[in-house]
Amino acid sequence: MKATRMTFRVSGALLLGAFSACGGTGSEIVDDLGLPANLVVRTGDVVAIDPELSGRLASNFEVEPDLPAGLTLDPDSGRISGVPVARAATAAYRLRAEVGPVTVEDTIEIAVGNALPSEVAELDSRFDAERLVVLPQPPGKMAVAPDGRIFLTELMTGSIRILSPGTGLQAMPFATLTVQSGGHQGLLGLALSPDFETDSLVFATAVVPAAGGQPVRTQLWRWREDSGLGVDATLLLDDLPAAAINNAGTLLFDSTGMLLLSIGDVEQPSLAQDPNSFAGKILRLDPNDGSAPSDNPDPTSLVFASGFRNTFAMAQHPEAGSIYAADNGPVSDDELNLLQGGKNYEWGSNGEGFGADTGPELRHWNDVVVPTGLAVRDDRGVPAWPFSGAGSLFLALYDEEILERFEVSGSARTDIDSESVFLRFLVQGVANQPVDLQFGTEGELLVLTTTAVFRIDAIR
């Protein structure tokens, strides 16, 4: 048995394989070319795969079925080359050649993904990225309806818009509030009821101007969706703290159906430790009437946890139930926290610890990254993504223009096993900072940036 080494070069990257060929008659087939198990390229990539047979002569190369459009096989040299011109789903291709009296063959799975949008500089090679829409106004947050529609907030106009993939933005806003613009103000958080299919309820937070003797403040609103428009507008909470910056305003429904609302420290760190202020707190309320649920740490208070500066993002693991919250520090000390009721996360405490009441921190950054969006999936779920393990936590880092992927494990999915860049945006005169992440109805990752909405999914 003699080993023969093959080298594959695809878009400048070397893929190495080895195969063995046994002597015998021409009718013998050896099912081992040592080809890579799979090859993933993008439309527009230059592909060149050259077999190196270590001096042995090979001829009459064949492949079946036909290679993806734009790729060809040289029957004399065995080179697979070209530039893929269209997306092609993963398929198995069998390459066969004659090496002396022996026929050798092997199978490689090839998938061709779409070319990356111009805004995307880097993406895990196993994934596709598609720009769904360029937005007319800077957005804040988004929420996905069971029918696949994407609700979006426009920070400065105070409008909630609806994006239907395939048809674009609905011309008429879902609803519009008069908002205070500038800084961290405007239309902030957004969430749909977990029972949206039956109750059609939409929730949003906004910083509104002073009026009627009341100062600039944060409000929590609720609408019922009817044919793409918001009706039955209801003000659930008024007079919540607000300032030019550090207003937070993120919304998340927990697994019990209660609504979490983050309130920033409104530029006064000491308020995060003041039990008489909602500033620097995460509130938990009944979405029906805005009251405190009986299972809150203090059943007479909306406060669920305290000691936050400016929490822009929250997400809950679908299996473990753990709630993650990303808090923004001043010029350092951005955090990824595990949110737990009754805990204090120490902002505004001047270094004071709280013992067993201190909230758990999962990741700490010494530099400024500005975490703005969180999305989490169980990697054992369907549809499958090419990850293994208990789960993936995706975090949008605004200042870095990247999506970071954390592989998480453990019963609570709080053990961070690895951290890597999943996607990097390219900034060329137009800002593409990510501001929110959500998973869509088909398991795709939706990314909201300052200019557009993108859809990320595995190449299949």
Low-confidence segments:
1-31
- Total number of beta strands: 36
β-sheet strand percentage:
over 45%
What structural class do the secondary elements suggest?
mainly beta
Strand order of the largest sheet: 2-1-5-8-7
Tell me, briefly, the overall form.
elongated
By oligomeric state, this entry counts as single chain
Radius of gyration: 27 Å
Count of runs of 4 or more consecutive helical residues: 1
How is the biggest beta sheet arranged? 5 strands, antiparallel
Summarize the model shown.
The chain has about 450 residues and is an all-beta fold. Helices cover about 0% and strands about 50% of the residues. A hairpin with an 8-residue loop joins strand 19 (about 200-210) and strand 20.
Question: Can you put this structure into words, describing what you see?
Answer:
- This protein is mostly beta strands.
- The protein has one helix and 36 strands.
- The protein starts with a strand and ends with a strand.
- The relative contact order is 0.10.
